[in-house]
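Title: Comparing notes on inverse folding

I've been comparing how different people in this forum approach sequence design from structure. To keep things fair, I'm posting one structure and asking everyone to reply with a full sequence. Here's the target:
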């Protein structure tokens, strides 16, 4: 959202955010109802990071998954629960929006 300051326009972007987990795709690492802190920007995504992203084939769907490997300018993502996850095996390449840093509710913990 652009804002005007002293006659100059600058882009204001959130660096931190919060998301709520829905569904079992990241079990046992995360559970439905977990509240997470997300870091936008910062260091580049690495394989193994838990991220929030949008699949190019499903841009309406915001997901929490684990980054598997970079491909075609995006990432292949995978849920920790192989039997309960629609991930890149179904939807293909995703664009990562941010990295999950910690769960703040109900059991506070760093997420790795």
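Reply #1:
Here's my take.
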């Amino acid at each position: 959202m652009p804002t005007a300051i002293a006659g100059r326009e600058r882009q204001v972007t959130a660096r931190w955010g919060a998301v709520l987990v829905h569904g079992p795709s990241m079990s046992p690492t995360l559970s439905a109802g977990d509240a997470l802190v997300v870091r936008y920007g910062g260091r580049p995504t690495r394989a193994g990071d838990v991220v929030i992203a949008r699949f190019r084939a499903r841009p309406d769907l915001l997901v929490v998954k684990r980054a598997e490997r970079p491909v075609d300018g995006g990432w292949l993502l995978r849920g920790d629960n192989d039997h309960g996850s629609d991930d890149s095996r179904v939807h293909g390449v995703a664009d990562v929006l941010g990295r999950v840093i910690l769960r703040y509710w109900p059991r506070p913990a760093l997420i790795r």
